[in-house]
Amino acid sequence: MSDTRVDPAKGFSVESLTANPRQARKERLIRDSLGATALVSVLISGLIIWSLFSEAWTFMVEVDWGSVWDIGWFPRRGIYDIKTLIVASLIVTGIAMIVAGPLGLGAAIYLSEYARPGVRRTLKPILEILAGIPSVVLGFFALEWIAPNVVKTLFGGPAAGSLLAAGIGVGVLVVPLVASISEDTMKAVPMSLREASSSLGARKITTTIRVVLPAAVSGLMAAFIVAVSRALGETMVVFMAGGAAQTAVYTHDPLGGSLTMTAGMTSLARGTDSVVGEGLTFQSLFFVGLMLFVVTFALNLVADRFVHRVREQY
Description:
Order of helices and strands: HHEEHHHHHHHHHH
Number of strands: 2
Shape: globular
Strand order of the largest sheet: 1-2
Radius of gyration: 26 Å
Distance between the termini: 36 Å
Number of helices: 12
Helix content: over 70%
Structural class: mainly alpha
Largest sheet: 2 strands, antiparallel
């Protein structure tokens, strides 16, 4: 049975609209345009992956794998110690999450559960503006203030760059990301759950910890995974404040200086004519980039499976 409902204001039926050839052409054009944009994004992603894999494959086939597990990252001398970059990246990311996790989650809990509407409307935009600070500015801040005033004073580290200073700087950079996503997730928890907890006599902090956080755990996990991916991919802060100018030798000491994966790529590619030396120096950039892509992709897969497993439907 066809739908012949008539719009009383405009005097036409739904059936007449769907049968209009001009309207159908417009809908088809819009559909095809949106499909083309989706296809372009997929194509660009495919080209990026192909460019990474093609050069990285050349590196993996031709490299002496003994040089991939050595004393440091010196690609212009044919030494491609990948563990130097991986360990430094993990140290910086771990320190960043130690800083950003409690601060970001604490800010999210306050904005979602304790702040009055007027305070929330004021603080939330300010917090999100922090995410727009250029990373080069935070790099200078980490190098010129965090390193001498925090790392040296509290931990006896160097006044110059170190992995600890870089990690704290990246943590400051990631705090707004964790706070914003976590706060949005907690706000999405139905108010009825809070009211039910309060009706049983639970205090505000008990309701937050025992009801709201478990109900929002899938979104909180997604926020932390996004933050970890952001910390792994940060370049300028770790390049400027991570001690890369002093050394590229392997270390697992947070007070020492070293290169992360992104900083290693940046230090090698400063200017197109600087990527010279051994024959695989250029290809090593793509190998490190492919490793970073694989690690980030794996993190997102794990997060997606975890979120689907613990997600609550309300």
